[in-house]
Design a protein that fits this description.
Layout: E1 3-5, E2 8-13, H1 15-21, E3 30-32, H2 42-46, H3 51-60, H4 68-78, E4 92-96, E5 99-103, H5 114-117, H6 120-130, E6 136-142, H7 146-155, E7 161-168, H8 174-181, E8 188-194, H9 197-208, H10 211-219, E9 222-226, H11 232-251, E10 261-266, H12 271-282, E11 286-293, H13 298-305, E12 307-309, H14 330-338, H15 341-354, E13 356-358, H16 361-370, E14 371-375, H17 378-392, H18 398-414, E15 420-424, H19 432-438, H20 449-458, H21 464-467, E16 479-481, H22 485-492
Helix pairs in contact: 1-6, 3-4, 3-11, 11-12, 14-15, 17-18, 17-19, 19-20
The protein binds ligand LJ64HWYM.
The ligand N[C@@H](CCOP(=O)(O)O)C(=O)O is lined by residues 143-148, 228-229, 268-269, 271, 321.
Length: 494
């Protein structure tokens, strides 16, 4: 399997190179040259396997350089009982006959990012060995809340790696911030940026393409890579859970073999829903991909009109991980839909220069055959949390609530009640204050006391990785201007 840049197919790369580099040298995203099809009986075979075995089988289709033994070891370490609080790893909880919630927050940081960020360090360090790389890799991460902690936890104390996370200072939840600034490990750094997530992500991309900085760091024995979903090693493990969810529904006889399902995904950087698209391309019977956004509804508008326009107000919402106006992974979808790197390059250049592009009509038609876009604001998000709790005795976080709202809008508009997998991306305990508000609590406790309050209100235990934050020391307090992110990197990599 060869990988190419979404902006130039003339050079191809092995998976290990794609994973090590994170981003292609031309600024494009490393992408498989083609998406392999699952063999005919694969879903039937996979349905009786554990999550770990499913992961090995699916990832192997994309990773010829890695042996089954290597991948089996990685999956055992990444998804074992010391990391995930349920043997199912990514369980599916059915709310009614055709609404199934895929819970992706049972890992060490209580968000879906663990599904990939527990695996990526294994893929990356094995890739370094395969390529005989002697320098230390410095992982740069921009986060709107969840990726940062997921990456820190995945890479903490991993030999030959350093990790620096940038987060928007006033753009993450209290719990998310505490998770990051108390991170343990000798190779980690966390810096707040005065700005929003897009500023942090653009800043990281600038660091990546700063030739002089790269030379300075090379002299010090370092090079950059990424743990954001621009890295193919992030997207690949995310494909696994869509296939796994389909297999669970088959195994539990909630659907019949070959039956079509829809998926509804809350997404900001477009990596999560892109993974669902790849699962569909591999042959999973997925009908519609319902893309759910909060008030930062740039993707909703794009899917409806073909115009991507990031020049709009940026909203800090109660679903902060999706507070994003530049959705990096859309570039991979454009590559798939156009099959034309020149066209992708033009769109990306227009986005950089003017903040806007419009895709051609045939591309829009292809997009709309597969994707539906819906959005909702904070008021609706809170209403949905309350409603789902009352109707199903099921507690969801604000990101998942955005997805439930999108599904509801889609069903009302289309009349399509195909079974749907709704992706639940984070534990509600990461967003206690807003979740408590949604349950009608008017006096919300301060800081981590809100964990106990939510627990008392619902009878659900707060996840151990969040309760234990109480005993942790705050290690990182630095804030930089977005123009000065380079200083944080240089002072860490001495
Ligand atoms: N939702 C993210 C933003 C970065 O997205 P990624 O999937 O590219 O890592 C976050 O929580 O940080």
């Amino acid at each position: 399997m060869q990988y190419v840049s979404t902006r130039d197919v003339s050079t191809s790369y092995m998976a290990s190179q794609a994973i090590i580099q994170g981003l292609a040298p031309d600024g494009g995203l490393m992408t498989p040259f083609y998406i392999p099809k699952l063999p005919g009986k694969a879903l039937e075979d996979l349905k009786s396997m554990s999550y770990q075995h499913r992961a090995v089988y699916i990832m192997k289709q994309f990773l010829e350089e890695f042996s089954v033994k290597e991948l089996t070891d990685f999956a055992a370490a990444a998804y074992g009982p010391e990391k995930f609080d349920t043997p199912a790893v990514a369980p599916v909880r059915s709310l009614d006959g055709n609404t199934h919630c895929l819970e992706l927050w049972h890992g060490p940081t209580c968000a879906f990012k663990d599904m990939a960020l527990q695996m990526l360090p294994h893929l990356l360090t094995a890739s370094l060995t395969k390529r005989e790389e002697e320098k230390t890799v410095c992982i740069l991460v921009a986060t709107s809340g969840d990726t940062g902690k997921g990456a820190l936890e995945g890479f903490k104390d991993v030999p030959h790696t350093r990790i620096m996370v940038f987060y928007p200072r006033d753009g993450v939840s209290q719990v998310q911030e505490l998770q990051m600034v108390t991170q343990e490990g000798n190779n980690v750094g966390v810096t707040a940026v005065r700005g929003n997530f897009d500023d942090a992500q653009s800043g990281v991309k600038r660091l990546f393409s700063d030739g002089e900085l790269r030379r300075t760091l090379a002299d010090r024995g370092f090079f950059f890579s990424s743990a954001n979903s621009i890295n193919w090693g992030r997207v690949l493990p995310q494909i696994v859970y869509y296939i796994s969810a389909y297999c669970d529904l088959l195994r539990d006889e909630k659907i019949a073999p070959g039956q079509t399902i829809n998926v509804c995904v809350p997404t900001g950087n477009f990596g999560n829903i892109l993974a669902a698209y790849y699962a569909r391309e591999m042959g999973v019977p997925i009908g519609k991909l319902i893309c759910a956004s909060n008030s930062n509804n740039v993707l909703t508008d794009f899917i409806r009109t073909g115009v991507y326009d990031r020049k709009r107000p940026f909203h800090n919402t109660m679903s902060p991980s999706m507070d994003i106006l530049i959705s990096s992974n859309l570039e991979r979808l454009l590559f798939a839909l156009t099959q034309d790197t020149q066209e992708v390059k033009q769109y990306m250049e227009q986005l950089n220069a003017s903040g806007r592009y419009e895709v051609r009509k045939p591309i829009l038609e292809r997009l709309q055959k597969l994707f539906q876009g819906y959005c909702c604001d904070d008021r609706e998000t809170q209403r949905v949390i309350g409603e789902v709790y009352r109707q199903h005795d099921y507690l969801i976080d604000p990101h998942t609530a955005v997805a439930f709202s999108a599904l509801d809008q889609y069903r009302k508009e289309s009349g399509d009640d195909t079974p749907c997998v709704v992706v639940s991306t984070a534990s509600p305990f990461k967003f206690c204050d807003n979740v408590l508000g949604a349950l009608g609590v008017t006096e919300v406790a301060q800081g981590l006391d809100a964990l106990d309050q939510l627990s008392a209100k619902t009878g659900l235990p707060a996840p151990a990785p969040l309760s234990s934050l109480r005993n942790k020391e705050i290690r990182f307090t630095r804030t930089v201007e977005k123009e000065n992110m380079v200083d944080a990197v240089l002072s860490m990599l001495v």
